[in-house]
Fold this sequence. Notes:
The complex is a heterodimer of chains A (309) and B (249). With 309 residues, chain A is α/β, with parallel strands linked by helices. Chain A is built from 9 helices and 16 strands. Chain B is of the alpha/beta class. In chain B, 27% of the residues lie in helices and 31% in strands. Residues 6-8, 36, 38-39, 62-64, 92, 94, 97, 115-116, 118-119, 122, 124-128 of chain B line the site of adenosine monophosphate.
Amino acid sequence: MSILVLAEHDNNSIKPATLKAVAAAAQCGGDVHVVVIGSNCGGAADAAAAISGVAKVLVADAAQFADELAENVAAQLVALAGAYTHLLAPATASGKNIMPRVAALLDVQQISEITSIESPDTFVRPIYAGNGMATVQSLDAKKVITVRIASFDPVAASGGTAAREAVTVVAGLGISSFVGRDLAKSDRPELTAAKVVVSGGRGMGSADNFKILEPLADKLGAALGASRAAVDSGFAPNDWQVGQTGKVVAPELYVAIGISGAIQHLAGMKDSKVIVAINKDADAPIFAVADYGLVGDLFQLVPELVGAL
Amino acid sequence: MKILVPVKRVVDYNVKVRVKSDQTGMETANVKMSANPFDEIAIEEAVRLREAGIATEVIAISCGVTACQETLRTALAIGADRAILVETDAELQPLAVAKILKAIADKEGPGLIIAGKQAIDDDSNQTGQMTAALLGWPQATFASKVTIADGKAQVTREVDGGLETLSINLPAVITTDLRLNEPRYATLPNIMKAKKKPFEIIKVADLGVDITPRLKTIKVSEPPKRTAGVMVPDVATLVAKLRSEAKVI
Ligand SMILES: Cc1cc2nc3c(=O)[nH]c(=O)nc-3n(C[C@H](O)[C@H](O)[C@H](O)COP(=O)(O)OP(=O)(O)OC[C@H]3O[C@@H](n4cnc5c(N)ncnc54)[C@H](O)[C@@H]3O)c2cc1C
Ligand SMILES: Nc1ncnc2c1ncn2[C@@H]1O[C@H](COP(=O)(O)O)[C@@H](O)[C@H]1O
C-alpha cells in the first residue's frame, strides 16, 4: 500500500500544511510518497525529500504548473494515481480547489477535511459547521482525501532522505491561464500555524480601529484573524476570516475581540486550547465557549491589555 | 449564453442543528430549510450577468426531494428564468450531484455554471470542481469578482494569502465566495411572478446516471463539548490567569 501526498509549495519551499498532510498519510498506513508539481520547483523538491518519514518524492517540473492551475495539476495527479491507494492534500484553498477535480476524474467520492483516521477506509469529518462529527467509510477502491490541518500535528520538516524521481509530465490543458496575484506580505505567523491568534469582529468598527489589535498581536506573537462581518465590512483582508467557510484554527490561545460568536465563527476556532473573549455584551454567545471572559468596551480594554503584557 | 445555477436545499444557517440521539445523523425534522447561502449569491451573480446583457437565460437546478421546489421558487423570485428539479429521495453525495449536473449541462448547453463553493450542511466543497472535471471544463473556485468578455471569464479568487485572478475559457464552472455580491431580497411581486415561471421536474432515473453513495455514514457523534469558563473582572486578573492558570503567555 502506498499513499501519495500532494505538496503545497511555492516552488522553492514546502508550505507547513504539507507536513500535516504527511502526518495524516502516515496514519493511513503504508509508504508515504510526496509529489511536487510545479515549475522550476527543485527547491521545493529538495525540501520535500527532507520531510521525515517520506519514502519517495515524485517531481513534475514544467512551465504549465507554474501557477497551480487546477486543470493542469489535477491532470498530472490523475496520471500518477494508479500506483496509490490514497491521495491526500491539505484542506487549504489550494487543496480544496484541486482535489475534488482529481476525485471526479478518478470516479471517486472525495472525503473532505478529515479530522481523524479510524482505519485505512474510515475517517472522521465535521459536518454542519462542526455541530456533528461524521464517521464515514469510503467504498471506493481509491481514497481521495483533504486533511484539516488544525487537527494534525506536523511531521518534522527535516531528517528524511527520500529518493527523488522525475515523472513523465502531462501536457497542460490550455483552457485556463493565470492573470495575477495580490498577496499580502506579513511578518506575523501564518494564521493556521500560529500558537496565538487575535481576532477582531464587527465591534472593531472600522479598518483604522482594527489596527489597535496590532500591538496586542505583537506582544503575543500572534497571527491576526477576523470574523466574516469584519472582512465583509472591509476591516480585514479576506484570508483572515476564521470560521466554517474561512480558516479553521486551533491555537494554544485564541482571543476574540468584538465578536459575537455565531455558529459559523465558532466552527473555525472552538478547538483552540484556551479562548479569551472581550465583548461589551455580557450575553454574547462567544462567552459560552470562552475560558476567560471580559465584559467591557474593547477600545478601553485592548490598550489596557497591551499595557499589562 | 445560458447560465446554469445549482441550488441546494439546506437547513437554514440560523438553525443550530443537533446530532440525533441514535447517532444516525443530524436532527433535521421540522427545522427551517432555505437555499444554501452561497447558491443565492450564485443566482444573484447569474441574474446580474443577464441584466447586463451577457447572459440570455438563468436556469436554476436543484437535486433532491420534492420540497426542493420551494428552494427553486426562491431562486426564481431572485430572478432566475426557469427551474429544473431533478427529483429523488435517495441520498446524494457531491459526485452524484456532479454527474446529474453534467447530464443536464449536456442537454442544455450552458456557457457557464455558477455553483456555491460549499453546502453548509455537508461542508464538502466539491460539487463545482467535480462538475468541471466531468465536463472537461476549466474552473474558478471561491470567486469574489467575475467579468465576462471575449469567450472568457476573468475571475478573482479568494485564496490563502489574499487574492488571485485567473482567465478561463468558456464554458466553465465558477463557484462563489461570500464577497462576490450581496443577493437582493425577493420582493412580493417577484415572488408572485416566480409562480408563473417555467418549472420542469425530471426523475433522476431518466438521466441514466449512477448516483449510488460511495461514502457510508457509520455514525454521527457530538463534537467535544466546550463549557463556559469564568468571567474575569478586569485586565489584571485576565493576565494573571493566562500566566499562572492557563500558562499560555
Ligand atoms: C454561509 C455563511 C457562512 C458564514 N461563514 C462565516 C465564517 O466562516 N466566519 C465567521 O466569522 N462568520 C461567518 N458567517 C457569518 C456569521 O453568521 C456572523 O454573521 C458573523 O460571524 C458575525 O460577526 P461578528 O461577531 O464580528 O459580528 P456581530 O455578530 O455583529 O457581533 C459584533 C460583536 O461586537 C460586540 N461589540 C460591539 N462594539 C463593541 C465594543 N466597543 N467593545 C466590545 N464589544 C463590542 C457586540 O456586542 C457584538 O457581540 C457566515 C454566515 C453565512 C450565512
Ligand atoms: N443536491 C444539490 N442540488 C443542487 N445543487 C447542489 C446540490 N448539492 C450541491 N450542490 C451545489 O454544489 C455546491 C457545493 O456543494 P458541496 O460540494 O456539497 O459543498 C452547492 O453550493 C450547490 O451550488
